[in-house]
Amino acid sequence: MKFGIFYELSVPRPWGPESERTVYLNALEQVRLADELGFDQVWCVEHHFLEEYSHSSAPELFLTACAMQTQRIRIGHGIVVCVPQFNHPVRIAERTAVLDILSGGRLEVGTGRSATWTELAGFQADPDETKKTWDEIVRCLPKMWTQERFSHQGRAFSMPSRAILPKPYQKPHPPLWVAVTSPGTELDAADRGLGSLGLTFGGIAEQETKIAEYRRRIRVCDPVGDFVNEQVNTVNFLYCHEDAATGIKTGQRLAGTFNYLAAQLLAAREAYPTRSYPSLGLLPQLRQEAAGPGDGARVPEGLCIGDPQRVIEVVKRWESVGVDRINFLLNAMETVPQEQVLESLRLFASEVMPAFATEAAAPAAAG
Amino acid sequence: MPLSGTLDIRTLAGDAPRLASLHPDPWELEDAQVLQLMYEIDDAHILGLLPPALHPTIPPVVTFTVARFTESPVGPFTLAQARLGCRAGVRPRGFLLRAYCDAAAARDALASGWGYDCRDGEISLHRYHDSITTTVHADGADVLRASLVDPEPISGGDIQYTANMNLARVDEGGGEQALLVQVDPEYRFHHAERGRPRIDVFAREAWAARGVEPVYPVAATFARCDTGLPRIRYVCDPNKPALVGTREV
């Protein structure tokens, strides 16, 4: 089991001159501490126009800062929206290669396609097309990284032969992942030899079924890259405190705040009926998981909140169903004071991490 | 936290429908035809159009829904609604601005049973192969002319209709209270189509929608389905956040 942290970079109103800078600087301080404490990875999402929920529209820049201020922690660029109206595929290949170079080969690349009308319409992307264009782009990225020259005639984009530069520092290329929210995407991940970057919180039993199917299918995959990245990564909330009740109460406030914000967005499927989005993605899960900030009626299954012993038990349950990595959301809307976030990280590292083996889970060779 | 509505309920409550009770007999409405159009709207006025209980969606949207019912306990009728997309806590909802109905008995029953602010109107709904069109005519003028353009078949399971939040008055606790009534029908789809929405006439004042400026088309759907008007399950204090102001009936 490996542990990481991940960022949406939510910024509460009212927005003053320092609001966003404070969130970014707090996050960087957390990343530096996580690196020192032995966390394995830091991920940062790409979102656009998602007021308060996520002000992380240029994650490659934030992650570059993370890379330059840390020594060991791996850099998770994910998910990168693989929709050409958001990011030209060549620019994805170029930016990720630079980030891999600057981080000394610590990059992981998560791919996805956006699940909100808010974002898709903002870039005038057709929701019917995003699954198709993601599939095309994710097959092209490894070629762009590894071939001396690359040309392409496709649905999402076309281009004559060009040298796409620079090349990633990792050889043959960084590990590739795909965000798994919609039902069946775990099978897309498996069939293409991609890591499964789970983005739903809680729901251990449901995840167990998906993970088992992922493991079964990836054995016979046709990898899009030069190797199979058979790993299951999931996300969770983390608030660890010596006093269980305090940990749970604060953790619930954190989870409730995040979920409440997520619910305000306009999901693609809610606005635009299409088979391309067979579910509301992350949002209905979040609606079920928490009624809102301060809702203390119950502790949703599978959340890593409470004292170290409870968190260990929850992580062991995730481990038992086949999860390789857990990435933790540490804060939302700065609802937890920064010093408490840092203390939670320290306590997790000193009391929870030793209970788990943390050997490197290297990607398996193709083939 | 998310933005909330700032509408002064007192400006609307006096004209809001008065509920006979919170326990209307449910209606089953089979073989309904439902045309719905969604547009993003200018966000300049959205907060002033929603009660404090509700959050606007990001981005704000308006939906126009025209439903024709061939049978009901009070006979056939057609209902046209304009609603603002919103959230009651974390739940997707549509706040009713105003509705029009082409049958007096249905109009009165919808108002007293479920809090629909209904006015009299003539409503047409025509399905052609190249478009599905509707016109709402009231007080001598068209107040809505809209259409779904280029319909193509989709699965009914892909359509998501949101529940209504209707502002109404009810006698409770020895006095009259303003409430948001949640109306959350279920749908069994027989046929569904999707196309581009187009609005040719939208008389804002006639829909109590001053400041609602459709600026970007989202989608239009047409469905044949079985639905109904259910029992009222939840009501909400319009002046409190829905998380704390919602109660079960």
Q: How would you describe this structure to a colleague?
A:
The complex is a heterodimer of chains A (367) and B (249). Chain A has 367 residues and is an alpha/beta fold. Chain A is built from twelve helices and 13 strands. Chain A has helices at 19-37, 59-68, 89-102, 117-122, 130-146, 185-191, 204-218, 244-262, 268-271, 282-289, 308-320, 338-352, and strands at residues 2-7, 41-44, 74-81, 107-112, 150-153, 158-162, 176-180, 195-198, 227-228, 232-240, 304-306, 325-329, 364-365. The model of chain A is unreliable at 290-296 and 360-367 (pLDDT under 50). Chain B has helices at 10-13, 46-49, 104-114, 242-245; strands spanning 27-41, 55-56, 61-69, 77-88, 91-101, 118-120, 122-127, 131-138, 141-154, 163-172, 175-183, 188-202, 214-229, 234-236, 246-248. Chain B contains four helices and 15 strands. By secondary structure, chain B is mainly beta. Chain B starts with 9 loop residues before the first helix and ends with a strand. Chains A and B meet through helix 4, helix 8 and helix 9 of A and strand 13 of B.
Summarize the structure.
The complex is a heterodimer of chains A (367) and B (249). Chain A is of the alpha/beta class and 367 residues long.
Helical residue percent band of chain B:
under 10%
Helix content estimate of chain A:
40-55%
Strand residues, percent of chain B: over 45%
CATH architecture descriptor name of chain B: Beta Barrel
Corresponding CATH superfamily of chain A: Luciferase-like domain
- Strands of chain A, total number: 13
Largest sheet descriptor of chain A: 8 strands, parallel, barrel
CATH 4th-level superfamily of chain B: Acetoacetate decarboxylase-like
H/E series of chain B: HEHEEEEHEEEEEEEEEHE
List the domain count of chain A as a whole number: 1
For the terminal residues of chain A, how far apart are their CA atoms?
24 Å
How many domains make up the coordinates of chain B?
A: 1
Spatial strand sequence of the major β-sheet of chain A? 1-2-3-4-7-8-10-12
> What is the helix tally of chain A?
12
By DSSP, the count of extended strands of chain B is 15
Radius of gyration of chain A: 19 Å
